[in-house]
Amino acid sequence: MYNSSKNSGGQIANAIIIPMVVIVMISVVGIFGLLHWSARLSDETAVESQNKLISGALQLTQNYMVKQQNGVVIWDEAYHRVNQINPDEGWIYNNLMHWLFQNHGFSKSILINRDYGVQYVYAQNHTNKWMTQELLQELKPAVAKVRARYIISFRRTPSGLYSFIPQSSDARRSIAETGLVSLAGEPYLFSAAAIMPQIQSISRVRFPPSVLVSLVPLRGEKLTEISEMSRLDGFVLANNQTQRDGVGRFQLKSPLGQDVGLIAWQTTEPGSQMIRRINPFLALAAFMIAAVVIAVTIFTRQMTKRLARSEAKAVHSSRHDALSGLPNRARFHALLTDTLDESVAKGTNTAVVYIDLDHFKDINDTLGHSAGDKVITAVAQRLQRVIPETGIVARISGDEFAMVIKNCEDDVWLEYILDQVQDEIGRPIMIGRRELHASLSMGAAIATRDGNDQDELLRKADIALYDAKANGRNRRSFFEPNMEHHVQSKDRLSRELRLALKNDELTLAYQPQSDT
How far is 378 from 400, CA to CA, in rounded Å? Predict the structure, then answer.
């Protein structure tokens, strides 16, 4: 009984605790996961913002390059000299390309004429090996845009001629394109600007401009400028960079979309920094939550087991006698009903035996009720020991017991069992230092011979018990039909006497007595 109560208590505890623990764990994991997801999202947003800062700083640098070029590309003399049939290369060298190097650091320059041919190439180290067809292909989209923007800036006059009116000479109004190209594996910033006149000009047809392309390496001063404008730390220029935590990568592209290098920097990760700061508190919170869950789990399990034990004990108490521990009258009736149903189904015999302790009242009167309780307990234990394993023993009332013995083969077999019962009870019972000798009177009724109804069998077993007690006690009787007739006759006589007394129907007759 108690094992089953423990099992049921454990099941109840599991039914309560497991969902609770699962909910708490899901909540904790969900909160931690949400924090880390938010931190990662914050880091990604920060890196994206830093990429935009670098892109903006790079664009500002390129715009400034355009502004630096304006001094030589928006100039009437330069416009006329570069567009001559035989341009003066010395003048171009000194007043355009070398001047740009001396004043603004453009270490390389290319002059492309109106026919899209390379007219002049300049390099600080006086070499032309860096000038390749691959470089021209990289620059071609930017140069083409400059030429196209220059041509569409012409306005047709009412006379059918074309007028070119220069805009302001600042960087925002110049006709120029900027970008990045790769020279010998090193990224260079370039600015390609159209060489334009300073004053309005009229021409019969529109024609493309000569384009000056100025280049400067993206390292040293330029890289420092971009780093200072973006206010990011750890700027490094590289051809390739393995993806690593905490390192940002800004890919540099040529006008044709080819990779020309990348800028790497130490990213600021506010989300990760926050997580690192609060990780100790998260660990402490997780520990505290785990401790609370464990404590609640243990408490709940103990309480549910205690409740289950209390419930099982209450059920057991409602079905069993508190003194002897045997099934009580109500439980005995339920067990007898089940046994009789099983007996009918199997076609076997079942004996119902009523037992009464002889002279039990004398024990209570002489030794006290505590001694009587000890006798009841001893008798209950002995009955349980001697009855077959499939049998049932119950305490019906004070000194009355009942037994159910299944699968009775015949009366001889049952008498043998009852002899064992009497022999076992007949052994002395020690109450303190005193020996008590108890005896039993028993009455038995057998199903199906004496009937299959529970109440009928109990009534007949009680009649047989009455017969055993009337015939000297410390014996047993099996129910016989004449016992019932005797009981009924006695009952009828008792009722008739009461009725005669009520109706004053009795007469007194004297019998003379004589003394011989």
Answer: 14
